[in-house]
Design brief:
With 205 residues, the protein is of the alpha/beta class. It contains 8 helices and 7 strands.
Length: 205
């Protein structure tokens, strides 16, 4: 497959198994392709999380870590203990080469996450929930895995935000006072294809 076609197809994936196959195939050229399109979200999320987190040694879980670009951004912001999980083994292999993760684990499509005892103070989902990525139900699983006072830093891209269910999910936590909104900012995601995203940080209360 022409490496230039992977990004075009990424937002039309409609099952976890299809997503795994796509990202396995894309893994070798992923960094190059999205890098040339100005991938800005990892650095934006890392900066937003670093602004609110006062313990950079506390473990961070990078959900949907892919090839590790979000882990690199977190490491560059001073986070010291980063674990990654993803459903693509080929992506995880690429992430391991970046030497910024303590642990990397493969997750199975549609399997429960069971993160309650993971010990992560923060969870990052960098472009990992939404159109062509994990379903919105994962939002609840990740929030359940956080301790009170833990931080969830995530992004919803413009494709996802066309459907109001994504922000409604986050707002439901804020409105019921089970989370506190600390950061919300729209900005670049992949400016090379004129795609933005909103970066959020919420604190579980």
């Amino acid at each position: 497959m022409d490496k230039e076609k992977f990004l075009d197809k990424a937002y039309g994936l409609d099952s976890a198994h299809q997503t795994r196959a796509h990202y396995d195939d894309w893994s070798a050229s992923y960094d190059d392709e999205i890098g040339r399109n100005g991938y800005a979200t990892p650095a934006r999320i890392a900066a937003a999380l670093a602004h609110v987190c006062d313990d950079l040694a506390a473990p961070v879980l990078d959900f949907g870590c892919g090839t590790g670009l979000s882990g690199v951004a977190l490491s560059q912001r001073g986070f010291l203990t980063i674990d990654g999980i993803d459903l693509s083994q080929d992506m995880i292999t690429q992430a391991g080469d970046k030497a910024c993760y303590r642990d990397l684990h493969l997750i199975e499509p549609d399997a429960p996450l069971n993160l309650e005892a993971s010990g992560h103070k923060s969870i990052v989902a960098c472009g990992a929930i939404g159109a062509g990525a994990a379903p919105l139900s994962v939002f609840d699983s990740l929030m359940q895995g956080l301790p009170r006072g833990g931080f969830f830093a995530l992004s919803f891209n413009d494709h996802s935000l066309e459907d109001p269910i994504y922000e409604a999910k986050l707002d439901s936590y804020v409105q019921t006072k089970t989370a506190r909104l600390l950061h919300r900012e729209h900005g670049d995601h992949l400016p090379g294809i004129n795609l933005g995203c909103v970066v959020y940080v919420i604190e579980k209360t």
